[in-house]
UniProtKB/TrEMBL annotation:
Keywords: Membrane, Transmembrane, Transmembrane helix. Gene3D superfamilies: Voltage-dependent anion channel. The chain crosses the membrane at residues 58-81, 101-123, 129-159, 171-192, 198-228, 240-261, 281-308, 329-350, 356-380. It is a multi-pass membrane protein. GO terms for cellular component: membrane. GO terms for molecular function: malate transmembrane transporter activity. This is C4-dicarboxylate transporter/malic acid transport protein. InterPro entries: Mae1, SLAC1/Mae1/Ssu1/TehA, Voltage-dep_anion_channel_sf.
Amino acid sequence: MLDKNQHEASTRNRNMESKDDSEVRLLDRFTWANFTCTQSTGGVAILLSETHHQFRGLQTAGVVVFILNLVLFVLFTTAMICRFVQRPSSFRKSITKPPEAYFTGSLWLSMATIIICMQRFGVPHTGPWIIVTIRVLFWTYAAITLTYNIFIFVVMFALSPLKPGTMSPPMFLMIYNAMLTGTVASAIAAGQPLSQRMAIIVAGVGFQGLGWILCLLFLPLFVGNMLINGLGPANQRPGLFISVGSSGYTIVALIGCARAIPDGYGYFAKHPTASETLNVVALWIGIFLWLFAFWLFAIALVAHLPILISKYCNNNKNNMSQQQMNFTLPWWAIIFPNVGFTIGTIYIGEELDSNAIAWVGTVMTVLVFAAWLMDLFLHLKSIFQRRIM
């Protein structure tokens, strides 16, 4: 009888240990790449507030998506903290070893969308304190992203130098957090006091320049990688959309900062024509970049046609195609870069007073929102089916 009780106790202990090990292994598979979900969800909330053709309830929908994003961000951050507490050595590996290290930028991009959403949805319903809070968060975010961009590139140069033909689309995430500093500036500057606005605009344009120039260095590597290695595995191919954000968010930042210029204050009091000149320059630079963004978007879109044709027209290869197109976290690249492209299109339409372009932006908004719902469903389905984590 005693032996039987001891055996049962030993079995329970082994089961508990096995369960604990399973939980640890589960957290080990929870990586920075999950924040591509929150950066995209926050981007969709911003897009709903920016789309030209508004209707009753759309802003409320944006608030709901924003709150969902906050909940997801807290859950993901808690999961990452638990992972690093249980396995401290995994923290160093996660920020120094590709490809996970590339996705560390998604954490800061998620924070950028939260700051913009605070401006869009929080300021109209709260007191002056939130304006000060947003300003403090902006400068903190700018300092962190500049430090991060210095650190992450030194790490990549020293520990993981890039070989010819090995450019990975998630590498753009290391740059976009600095670029989004310019986008955040364009979103919040108009709501700040005149004494603070100029500094935010100047910083935003400067950070946007840093992000755009780094993207210019990466884009030839990105295209060269496709020339050498092709379009990549089918289930990773949605990651090709990530390059679209380089031009899209530059358009948003330049036009947004130009709109926020304070007339008759400081520099613009001494140069009264500078405000109108910069608005014109920002618009036409945006138009100059828009077709390039569309070209990158079209390449990523057309790259999926052979897969779709193989899936729906070739019965003999149907099962294989289905397996190749299983959801992976890079599928969130369908959303976030195209949010910038869509908002940039909306801004150009508004500046040109073009109803046709405004409707194009509205259609793009609907498509991005539909893609977001698809990714959200597939992400949850993949978790329940244990195909990720």
